[in-house]
Amino acid sequence: MIDSKSFHKDIREINTPDNPFYYSSENNVPINNIYIIRKKLNLSVKDFAKLCNLSEGAITKAEIKRSPRIDTIKKVAYATNETISFVGNFDELPENTFAEKLYKAIKYHGHSYETCAKELRVSRDSIARYLNGGFPRTKRIQESVEKYISIIM
Questions:
Q1: CA dihedral for 139, 140, 146, 149, sign (positive or negative)
Q2: Which residue, 13, 40, 69, 115, shows the most beta carbons closer than 10 Å to its own?
């Protein structure tokens, strides 16, 4: 298990310009925290994959992609005792509009759009409409969405 306090404090050591996944707020490219977690644990891709119950290919792919699959993020988070939001680097997502807040909340919960729709008891189309600037039409749904979004606040 990772000691989260020292881990997060020491993460700056890995976040340097010579790291291929370096984060710079100037170019707005998010840190690939899966790569950083693996390096901090000093594990090979093979060993890290075994720890996370994933294939080596899944780990390699997740380290290269800016937005790994949510199921990969969940497995890494569970195996390393980290939060889904840290592994996926969801703290960097904007939350200026209702749609941005909902999108960030979906990521924080580790849900797909379908799972979010089930959780809120609305259709998948309603979620798509909310993410495209629409708003819930009834008070019950508004309250459900506000409660769902409260995870990011």
A1: negative
A2: 40
Q: Is 141 exposed, middle or buried (0-12, 13-18, 19+ CB in 10 A)?
A: middle
For residues 80, 85, 90, 92, the Cα torsion angle rounded to the nearest 10 degrees is -90
Q: What number of residues does the chain have?
A: 153
pLDDT band at 147 (very low <50, low <70, confident <90, very high): very high
Cα angle value 59/62/68 (rounded, 5°):
140
Q: Which residue has the tokens 């995870």?
A: 151
For residues 69 and 63, give the distance between their C-alpha atoms in angstroms, rounded to a whole number: 11
Give residue-wise pLDDT tens across range 87-120.
Answer: 988 888 889 999 999 999 999 999 999 999 999 9
Paired with 29 in beta bridges are 24
Q: Map residue 24 onto helix, strand or coil.
A: strand
Each residue's pLDDT tens digit, 51-69: 999 999 999 989 887 778 8
Which residue from 35, 37, 42 is spatially nearest to 20, judged by alpha carbons? 35
